[in-house]
């Protein structure tokens, strides 16, 4: 039940399908409960996923690769969404090209390609949802992808929330929502390192 590059592609396609029709709306609107607006949240997705790809290529053991990926300041909403999508597809291609024994630095543990794919899914889905909330639209990701990502990055929550909709469980695990009998977590952390390591 590993998270794969195909899962990242599916997560990306779900977010892009939800947001592309909304690129004529005001992307200066606040993205969900974040301090960022929708435009800068999409830019963050692009930067984050390019960073993950850089980690897998350079494989540093104790730091991030020293670069930032930014959208042009005059990029339209459609263009900043394109930047986020391109970064996600580059990360997916990098995951496919990386052997399973590859490890690279992430603050949550020395991550493998599956870990970076899973973290890429979370960044894409959750920040895509933040943008969607700001624009008054909805992201509807594949539940099987959510299940695999939850199991990989939040194994304890995956067990505790086995009967909960996987998308709701993933949003709860990242501090986005409350669930019945479960207050919204004030702090959370995923596990980037392989579960067996």
Please explain how this structure is put together.
The protein has 197 residues and is mainly α. The chain has one domain: Four Helix Bundle (Hemerythrin (Met), subunit A) (Up-down Bundle). It contains 7 helices and no strands. Helix 1 packs antiparallel against helix 3 and helix 2 packs antiparallel against helix 4. The two termini are 17 Å apart. The model has no long low-confidence stretch (mean pLDDT 95).
Name some characteristics of this structure.
globular, single chain, Four Helix Bundle (Hemerythrin (Met), subunit A), 0% strand, 197 residues, mainly alpha
Short recap of the structure:
The chain is mainly alpha-helical and 197 residues long.
Number of contiguous helices: 7
Give the SSE string: HHHHHHH
Number of strands: 0
User: Based on helices, strands and strand pairing, what is the structural class?
Assistant: mainly alpha
Q: In total, how many domains does the architecture comprise?
A: 1
- CATH H-level superfamily title: dinb family like domain
Q: Termini separation (Å)? A: 17 Å
CATH class designation:
Mainly Alpha
- Per CATH, what is the topology? Four Helix Bundle (Hemerythrin (Met), subunit A)
Strand content: under 5%
Q: Which value, in Å, is the CA radius of gyration?
A: 16 Å
Mean pLDDT: 95
Report low-confidence residues grouped into runs of 5 or more: none
The assigned CATH architecture is: Up-down Bundle
What is the general shape?
A: globular
Helix content: 40-55%
Specify the biggest β-sheet: none
